[in-house]
Amino acid sequence: MAFSPASSYYWKGFRDGAPFILVAGPFGMLFGVLATEAGLNLTETMVMTATVFAGAAQLTALQLMQEHAPTIIVLASALAVNLRMAMYSASLTPFLGKAPLWQRAFAAYLTVDQSYACSIVRFETEPDLTVPQRMGYFMGSVTPVTTAWYAFTLVGALLGAQIPESWALDFALPIAFLAMATPMLRTSAHVVAATVSVVVALLAAGLPYNLGLMVAGLAGMITGARVELVLRKKGLWT
Amino acid sequence: MTPDHNGFDSATLWIVIAGMAVGSFALRFVFIGLVGDRPMPDWLLRHLRYTAVAILPALVTPLVVWPKATGGALDLPRLLAALVTVGVGTLTKNVLAAIFAGAATLYGLLYLL
């Protein structure tokens, strides 16, 4: 096992990550199209996609900027969408925390839904992997997704202006986000958190500066954490 | 400061891009880079677990109920498309299947109605 090179784990990761091209490709294209529709030029779109590297947060920022939300609210909301990355980072730390700092910095940049989902499953099922093998696997799993994300954002940005209004792209974001969030509802605590967030979002929609989003998000998070605690006390948490 | 984009100007955009780039990296780096292999408090992890399922629905709900394309009026194709997306996502746990089902519903109803 110790002699199995990290590079073979890179290719294992690559194979496991490849199917996610089907998610990252269309999502990148959607961002490219919507960014162009919002008036971003090619440079702005590609710099944003390469430096932020988080589709859901990027789409959130686009949406709020077009609603004239104050910059601080745009940033706070977009980063709130990205808070789950902190959770991924926390969850990967026991497995990759001993790698050299430069590798951890690289892994941090590449921490996305897909690389996390692939890697955590592999790391938990093969606890004897060395840190270089794990890092190789992680990098492999994110390579196809990253390539697809850059390339399809570019395609979307180039197509953007030509897409007619009858395509109802205004509703691509809600559908994409609902499709992403629904499979995450793994426990009753997640379901209650999402339900509270929907109800509060409707009640708080009138708040100024798009604060309704922050209020509803926080309410959902606190509710989810509370429900989890209650279920744990009753021994119903698995 | 004239808005050269849809409702915002270049300076605002670049501030948002820079802030998001730094902030997103910080969120990803904070544990793996700074905490290393020390343990983290349970209460923090417990709240972080629910961020995605709390923030994404909160962002989407107003867009579903008051779509801008109809001037904020409740719109049957968009409402049903959202419900179908959630339904298929729940049943299949498959992001792509949910997206295709939602898009098919939206286009089907926009075409019929």
What kind of sheet is the major sheet of chain A?
none
Instruction: Provide the low-confidence segments of chain A as ranges.
Output: none
Count of spatially separate domains of chain A: 2
> Helical proportion of chain A?
over 70%
**How does the overall form of chain A come out from the CA principal axes?**
globular
What's the Cα radius of gyration of chain B?
A: 20 Å
Rg of chain A (C-alpha, Å): 19 Å
Instruction: Give the overall silhouette of chain B.
Output: flat
Pfam families (chain A): AzlC
Family (chain A): Belongs to the AzlC family.
Keywords (chain A): Cell membrane, Membrane, Transmembrane, Transmembrane helix, Transport
Membrane topology (chain A): Multi-pass membrane protein
Topology:
The complex is a heterodimer of chains A (238) and B (113).
Chain A: H1 6-17, H2 21-37, H3 42-52, H4 55-66, H5 71-81, H6 83-96, H7 101-109, H8 113-125, H9 131-159, H10 172-181, H11 188-203, H12 211-233
Helix pairs in contact in A: 1-9, 2-3, 2-4, 2-9, 3-9, 4-5, 5-12, 6-8, 8-9, 11-12
Chain B: H1 10-35, H2 42-48, H3 51-65, H4 76-92, H5 95-112
Compose a concise summary of this entry:
Chain A has 238 residues and is mainly α. Chain A is built from twelve helices and no strands. Chain A has two domains: 6-168, no CATH class; 185-238, no CATH class.
